[in-house]
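Appendix B. Chain record.
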Amino acid sequence: MKIELADVISCGGGEISEQVEIGLKSFDSRLGRFPIVKKEPFAIRFANEGGRRLLIQGEAELTIAIPCDRCLEMTGQAFHLTIDKEIDLTGEKEEMRMEEMDFMAGTSLDVDQLIFGEILVSWPMKVLCREDCKGICKKCGANMNLAGCQCPKAELDPRMAAIQDIFNQCKEV
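Structure tokens predicted for this chain:
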């Protein structure tokens, strides 16, 4: 969704607050496609401070379905996004303009692009379905949270394989 900010930008002390529906259905990035399973309206406020800078403040709540890093089961990851951006309206700070270009086009603000950038910055390093997730079996691929598997649990050091063969031969006698 796009919001036109021409009225706020042109007026020296202009300010507006809105509740905006987030249009994103999924978070699509190089990491993959992750569906947004729950979203609440985005409360956003725009304020022009003396024609010199535009303040963008807002809060959003989202829940995105992300696979667990250990067992690969989909789990809902809550994101509380707090946005506090400042845009220079005088054009003096050119380095700020490059960051703004992805969600601002002239006097129009793309809310979905702003939310996308905030999700990207807030993306967790590790996602777990629960703290004590057991993951999957390395041999058969069974989800260890649901049921155990019959695979042997002892992993032997391959350098000790010759000694293991000697022990196995001694048991046969």
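Further analysis of this model is presented in Appendix C.
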